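Open question from group meeting: does this chain pack into something compact, or does most of it stay loose? Before anyone orders reagents, we agreed to write out a predicted structure and look at it together. Recording both the input and the output here so the notebook holds the full record.
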Amino acid sequence: DLAKGLEDLNTLIIQNPNDMRARVRRGWAYLAMKKFSAAVSDLSYAIERKAELPLAYLNLAAVYYETGDLERAFTVNAKVFLLHEPQYLVDALFQKGLILLAMNKDEESRALYSQGRSLAEKNSDLSRLEYGIEELREAMKGAKARPQTAEPILRSLQEAKRTMNPSSDASNYACRRLIL
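Structure tokens returned:
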């Protein structure tokens, strides 16, 4: 449960205040609990001290997306691409596509989702594809994405999922962070 996890992270951070990965995890927990100012505080702190943490940027962009600050979400998301961390590229592409959907930039959004889909298929990365589907569905439920644009993207991602072999997913996301 999030409360217990948060308690454990607080203890870990007290014991090792320089553990920026623990701060990123606590920032994610705050995001999941919708404690946005606390999430921004932890994620920004981690970025200031260890700028090469892609999850910190992805989660900070997610906070800004959730709070409606789409320009800031877009700017923070762009920093993930500068880190050249291939394992986060699909996440960053899907997140940027989602942000652009909310900004009504449909063509750019479709292009990013297409790139993310292709990369997930190339890498046989089912978990990231499933996560992209889940986040897009959530955006549609929350009216953050217009159905006429989001539904074809969703169908495309679902089709890619159907064609992938679930056993080929090499990633382990038992403790998947919230991106969007």
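Observations to bring back to the group:
Residues 168-180 have pLDDT under 50 and may be disordered.
The chain is about 75% helix and 0% strand.
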